[in-house]
Amino acid sequence: MELADQAVIDRARSGDSDAFRVLVERHSRALFRLSFRMTGNESDAEDVVQETFLRAYRQLGKFDGRANFGTWLYRIAANCALDLVRARSRRGEKVWEPGAAAGGIREGASDPLLTSAAKDPGPERLAISSQVRERVAEAMDELSPAERTAFVLRHFEGMCIEDVSRALGCQTGAAKHSVFRAVQKLRRALEPLVNTK
Amino acid sequence: MTHLTEEELILHYYSEADGGPVERHLDACPECRAAYGSLERVLNVMDALPVPERGEGYETAVWRRLRGAGLRPALWRRPLVRWPAAALVLASALVGVVLIHRPAPPPLQSAGVQKRILDFAVGDYLDRSQIVLAELANASPAGTLDISVDQELAGDLLAECRLYHQTALRTGDNAVAGVLDELERVLVEISHAPSRLAPAQVEELQQRLRSQGVLFRIRNLGSTVRTQAEHKS
Fold first, then answer.
1. Do B10 and A53 touch (CB under 8 A)?
2. pLDDT value of position B95
3. Domain-by-domain residue ranges, chain A?
4. Rounded to the nearest 10 degrees, what angle do helices A17-39 and A42-59 cross at?
């Protein structure tokens, strides 16, 4: 039977590196998804995953078990990704590259643009996918690091606002406003594209 | 009719609000229904954004990278992170050097601050040392063990250990000095061991780590200095 995270954490705390390996194996895919959505870049996402586990290993003693271990890890990952994104912003670099989401919009995904378009993936449909991808990347790039984090945690990871605030270490109101601002910016950027189809 | 605000629509989309009144309003108000439909379309487009798939064995690859990184932070390699971090290490070293070479420490107002910086630095240092020793103490002695990465880390830790040890002696912090003295001996032993250990050698090393209780003392001291530093801040 699979041991609960807490039991594995207790073993890892006592220096059992095999136990820590179990935690890495359990959470690395989810952390990659979060990191990719935060950074928009595979290589950066991999660095964030690595850095998250390294920080988690060092801080295991501080994990008090009140929060879910996954939420605690997400908080570390969000902070690592924020550091990275802020550093990029300071250098004036784009965070989300248009080509970041390799492969573009998934074929057959529940994309309202595509479901209203022709079924066959003709040139027009592929062009739309590419256009959407670029606009989404640009729109994500317009978000501040805090907005991006709050949005990713709320929208993609399905965290409630309260958990988002815990993960970000801020008040619930602040987390809520970050999500609002993010959605407003995304609407402004993407609505013209969505509503013309 | 008062229309729903954008915030209310967003909270409704994420099921963060009482859905009943909003649902009823949406049923009755074409304008708000249109606005909500538009919001849904935008957010659904976001859902369709793919994340690159990781292949089979990804988890194992992550674990290998963590081991291969010798528990060094990947972000350390980034210039914008490396320079501030290097500056912090240099600042800690300078505090150490100042404390070591001061002929007769006068009663300065900043002595408490210096002690706090030192406590933070020693706490962080002990955390890093603990990781290396715990890795070795818990390694499986089933086959030949390559400890070259641990040796490289132990070599780095040794230089720092000597600096903090001298500083602790100078400031009369005997508890810290005692543990660092023990740790120094262990680190020297690891640094000078063969890089590939046979199972019997692994067991011997682990036995020594256990009998000396150095890991336990490092953990205790680390917790103590961190608490001290936090209380003083």
1. no
2. 67
3. 1-95
4. 140
Q: Which residue of A has its CA nearest to B222?
A: A61
* Closest CA–CA distance from residue A90 to any residue of chain B (Å): 10
The confidence band for B117, taking pLDDT boundaries of 50, 70 and 90, is confident
Q: Cβ contacts of residue B216 below 8 Å, gap of 6+? A: none
CATH number of A1-95: 1.10.1740.10
Question: How far is Cα A149 from Cα A145, in angstroms, rounded to an integer?
Answer: 6
Residue type, A62: K
Q: Which residues of chain A have pLDDT under 70?
A: 1-3, 89-129, 196-197
ipTM over 0.90: no
Exposed, middle or buried, A49 (CB in 10 Å: 0-12/13-18/19+)?
buried
In this complex, the residue of A21, A112, A180 whose CB is nearest that of residue B45 is A112
**3-state secondary structure (DSSP) of residue B145:** strand
Tokens 């001061």 found at: B102
SS3 B78: coil
